[in-house]
Every structure is written in C-alpha cells, then in structure tokens.
C-alpha cells in the first residue's frame, strides 16, 4: 500500500434486507484511473456514495492511505464528486463556479489557480459566461474544474458523461483521460458503458449484483474473462460447450467431435465441462474443407446464415452442425473474402485466443 491508496475492505451495504453491496474488497492505487463497471442496479453508485460519505457502510471499512474515513463527514474527506447532473450554480459565472471552493476556504491566489484550472479544461475564454451559455460538454468540464480545484486525493465520477450525445461522449472520454494524466489525482469512474470504461481506465472492476466479478487491466479482462458475465458484458463472445482435459502444455477441449487446444495456466478452469470462449474478431473464415494453418483450431461445416456490413467490419453468423450460431467479425480490408448467406465455411482461430470458463455457469 502506498501513500494515498483507496482501500475498501469487506464493505457491505444493506437497505433493509436488500444487499446492494456485498462484502466488497477493492484497492485503488494512488494516481490510478479506475472504473467501476456494471449494469444498472449492480451497486456501483452505492459504492461510490460510501466513499464520498453520502452513505454509511453497514459493515466494513474504507481508508485513504493511513486515514480510516468510514465514518467521516463528507466535507471532511479529501474526496470530491462529479455527477451526471453538473449541479453548477446558474447565477454565478464560470470563473466564480470554479472559484467557489477556494473562496470558501479563504484561499489567497484564487485568480491564478482558477485561471490555471480553466486552461486545463480548455475553457479559458469562457470565464465570464454563465453556465446556461455553455454546451453540455463545456458545462461538464466546468463541473470537473470545480471538483478538482481543491486538489482532492480522490475524484469520484458518477456517470459524468451520461447526458452527452455519443460523439461528444467519445471526445470527453479522451479529454478526461488527458486531464487525469495531467493532474495525477486518483479518479474512480462509475459507468455501465464497457467501451467507456475500457477506453479511459487503467483498471476496471466489473460489478454484478453487489459483488466484483473480476478486476484488472482492460485487455486482461477482455482476453481472459473469468466468468461468463464478464465475457458477455465486455463485448461479444461465442461460448461453446466442451469437455476439457490436460494434454501436456495444453488443454484439450472436445467439442462435437473436434479436438481443440488452449494454452494451460491462464484459463478459469482446465478440466471437465467448460464453456470454450472465443471473441468473434479472433475467428477467421475459410471455405469448408480448407486445410488449417499450423496449430490453429478449426470447427468445420458451418453455414452462413446472416451477413451484416457495418463499415469497418462485416459480421457473419455461421450455423454449426449442432445447431449453434457462432459470430465472426471480419475486418473490411482489401483482402476480405466476402461470404454470402448459404456458403459453407470452416471457422479457425489460434489456441492462444481461447478462454475457458466453468460450464456450471449460465452462458447468457
Ligand atoms: P445505476 O447505474 O442504475 O445507477 P448502480 O449500479 O449504480 O445502478 P445502485 O444505485 O448502487 O446501482 O443501486 C444498487 C441497488 O440498491 C439497486 O437495486 C437500488 O434499487 C438499491 N438502492 C440504492 N439506494 C437505495 C436506497 N436508498 N434505498 C433502498 N434501495 C436502494
């Protein structure tokens, strides 16, 4: 643990008999951009509100570095929050909105600090405007500047981009990341948008029904999900039922008469009933009967049942002999093969791109 790591230990929050957050453990390293990702109602806002001091944990503790903050009043915590509703003061100028926290503390060099902060969020020329004279994205940046001006140790962001349209959202994601890197303050960002979490955060905790299902770097979560929930929540995946057994340095997976391979040591499970997982963009198609490339896995005799052209890629559905439809994304480069509905195809992928999950979990 370093200077100001945020450590949530064994935290449970009950509302009556309903358990919103269930024995949660989470360490957010100082200076990290951390995302809490999950569907509506999974407990992410409640977790954030407990860190802010707006809810009290039923059990467990929350600390920032050496300081236990579980029962501290919100205003005594070195923590600020940015909400989706910007909550700016409509009668004050942008400058005064951002200056508010400093003035309340009787700080001296307000002009300089606010000036620097407005530059950071690229609103220098709007200092004298009122909030209603700014766009949604600009107002969100004012809210951010106002929350950062006191240099909290942790900034909590609760779906801060939720009110913006998609294009502006994408721009603001990159902006937020730049600002976080510049200020070096720990950001904990709550979102239900997996692309947003993966674009911005160094680390993501995936929440479901009050618990963290998995946490790690975005690439790790995407390529090595440990549960079907994580596999499905972070993008599209094909989950195919198989039987796994150890085979030297590999795991052998038998699927409908085909023997497939995955490397050992990374999978959530390596023997018995499994879901064999493969992301659609990792699969490549060939005409049925084409020989496999060295070492690749192959599932044969699919029939294309759907072709969707979506610009950068073409999405195929291939119905396999056992009735399951598998998804394949093919990049639209010059070399694309362009299969049609009814074509017979084989599906290939490299063993390294396979992930294995315990078949006792629901696949959907
Ligand atoms: P969303 O993205 O929809 O905000 P969330 O993951 O942030 O979802 P929470 O707001 O943390 O979810 O809520 C988790 C669960 O706790 C929900 O089922 C919610 O209805 C319940 N809950 C939250 N606050 C209260 C409360 N004050 N009293 C009773 N139940 C609550």
TrEMBL record:
SMART domains: AAA (SM00382). Its EC number is 7.6.2.11. The keyword Membrane applies. SUPFAM superfamilies: MOP-like, P-loop containing nucleoside triphosphate hydrolases. It catalyses: ATP + H2O + polyamine-[polyamine-binding protein]Side 1 = ADP + phosphate + polyamineSide 2 + [polyamine-binding protein]Side 1. It comes from the Bacteria. InterPro entries: AAA+_ATPase (IPR003593), ABC_SmlMolc_Importer (IPR050093), ABC_transporter-like_ATP-bd (IPR003439), ABC_transporter-like_CS (IPR017871), Mo/tungstate-bd_C_term_dom (IPR008995), P-loop_NTPase (IPR027417), PotA-like (IPR005893), Transp-assoc_OB_typ2 (IPR013611). Keywords: ATP-binding, Cell membrane, Membrane, Nucleotide-binding, Translocase, Transport. Residues 6-234 form the ABC transporter domain. The keyword Membrane applies. GO terms for molecular function: ATP binding. The complex is composed of two ATP-binding proteins (PotA), two transmembrane proteins (PotB and PotC) and a solute-binding protein (PotD). Belongs to the ABC transporter superfamily. Spermidine/putrescine importer (TC 3.A.1.11.1) family. PANTHER family: SPERMIDINE/PUTRESCINE IMPORT ATP-BINDING PROTEIN POTA, SPERMIDINE_PUTRESCINE IMPORT ATP-BINDING PROTEIN POTA. Part of the ABC transporter complex PotABCD involved in spermidine/putrescine import. Responsible for energy coupling to the transport system. This is Spermidine/putrescine import ATP-binding protein PotA. The gene is potA.
């Amino acid at each position: 643990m370093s200077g100001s790591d945020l450590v949530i230990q064994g935290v449970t929050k009950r509302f009556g008999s309903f358990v919103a957050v269930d024995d949660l453990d989470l360490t957010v390293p100082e200076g990290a951009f951390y995302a809490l990702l999950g569907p509506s109602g999974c407990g992410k806002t409640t977790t954030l509100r407990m860190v802010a001091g707006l809810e009290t944990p039923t059990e467990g503790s929350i600390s920032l570095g050496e300081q236990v903050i579980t029962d501290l009043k919100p205003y005594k915590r070195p923590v600020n929050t940015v909400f989706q509703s910007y909550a700016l003061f409509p009668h004050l100028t942008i400058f005064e909105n951002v200056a508010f926290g400093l003035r309340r503390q009787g700080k001296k060099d307000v002009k300089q600090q606010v000036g620097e902060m407005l530059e950071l969020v690229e609103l220098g020329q709007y200092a004298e405007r009122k909030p209603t004279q700014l766009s949604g994205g600009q107002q969100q940046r004012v809210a951010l500047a106002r929350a950062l001006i006191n240099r909290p140790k942790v900034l909590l962001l609760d779906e801060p981009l939720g009110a913006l349209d998609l294009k502006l959202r994408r721009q603001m994601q990159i902006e937020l990341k730049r600002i976080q890197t510049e200020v070096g303050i720990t950001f904990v960002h709550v979102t239900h948008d997996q692309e947003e979490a993966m674009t911005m955060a160094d680390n993501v905790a995936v929440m479901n029904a009050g618990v963290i299902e998995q946490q790690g770097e975005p690439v790790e979560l995407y390529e090595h999900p440990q549960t079907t929930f994580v596999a499905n929540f972070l993008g599209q995946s094909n989950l195919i039922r198989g039987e796994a057994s150890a085979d030297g340095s590999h795991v052998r997976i038998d699927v409908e008469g085909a023997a497939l391979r995955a490397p050992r040591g990374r999978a959530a499970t390596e023997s018995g009933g499994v879901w064999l997982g493969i992301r659609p963009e990792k699969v490549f198609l060939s005409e049925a009967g084409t020989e496999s490339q060295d070492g690749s896995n192959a599932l044969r005799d699919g029939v294309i049942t759907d072709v969707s052209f979506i610009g950068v890629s073409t999405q195929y559905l291939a119905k396999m002999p056992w009735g399951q439809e598998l998804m394949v994304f093919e990049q639209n480069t010059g070399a694309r093969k362009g299969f049609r509905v009814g074509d017979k195809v084989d599906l290939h992928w490299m063993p390294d791109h396979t992930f294995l999950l315990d078949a006792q979990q629901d696949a959907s």
